[in-house]
Amino acid sequence: MNYSKQREKILDTLTCNAIHPTAEELLEILKTENSNIGLTTLYRNLNQLAQAGMIKKIDGLDPSAHFDHNTHEHYHFICKECKRVFDVPSEVAPDLVNNTRMATGFDIENHDIVFHGVCSECKKRKENN
Amino acid sequence: MNYSKQREKILDTLTCNAIHPTAEELLEILKTENSNIGLTTLYRNLNQLAQAGMIKKIDGLDPSAHFDHNTHEHYHFICKECKRVFDVPSEVAPDLVNNTRMATGFDIENHDIVFHGVCSECKKRKENN
DNA sequence: GGTAAACTGATAACAGTTATCATTTTAGGT
DNA sequence: ACCTAAAATGATAACTGTTATCAGTTTACC
Q: Quick one: angle between helices B39-51 and B23-32, nearest 10?
């Protein structure tokens, strides 16, 4: 993998915008920063960075994939009201991989957990109405 | 929700083919059983059944969604070799929802876990080569 | 400085899914 | 049974997110 100006910018922008953006959302942010990166280039680099383990691709949230600069083990919660994506610490599922390896006998290389529900802010807002 | 011949057939076929098929796969199975159900009808009914809690929609496996007649709490493992989808019992993650509720303060309505790796059969096959 | 490999980005294609809508089926009341 | 309104069908067209193509540009290394 060679250096590229665009890839550096993409990684920077994702790191500074820890909101788990989709590719489209990231493109918008880049535009507002006067970085007109082509859509193909964006997708290509996001996939390359994910493959290299430098970012994480989150599937199963929307039709569209979200991207996360945080590569440490953690999970995700999506609020069905405001659609924001929140991090969930991996401690909520201790021994998950070991338990699953024992239960199934399979080699587990990675796993994702996605929670759906209502976040604190939206819960509060709904109660006040 | 009114009765419909097509919906009954779709639910039956999904129940008798517990392989977590995609919509396209299910359509193929239906065709071999001489049930020519329209693609739109299939998608509409799968979504309706999922909404009604009679089946489960599994996202985050492929680009395409898979469908599961088993609505009891359980998780999924997809083998990156043979692409088959296996069930994982929910006991591998005890107290997951409670822990997450405590850690985040959010209302959790549902959650999914997807494991990726290599299943026993494929592991064996690879070792013999 | 030259060259091979890697990268860009506009365009076109593609896959999975949903909207549209005229026709048919279902279910409940008279 | 019949009438009617609501629900369901399915062919077609549209839409969304993503990837392939490919000529031109940039990178890295001898």
A: 120
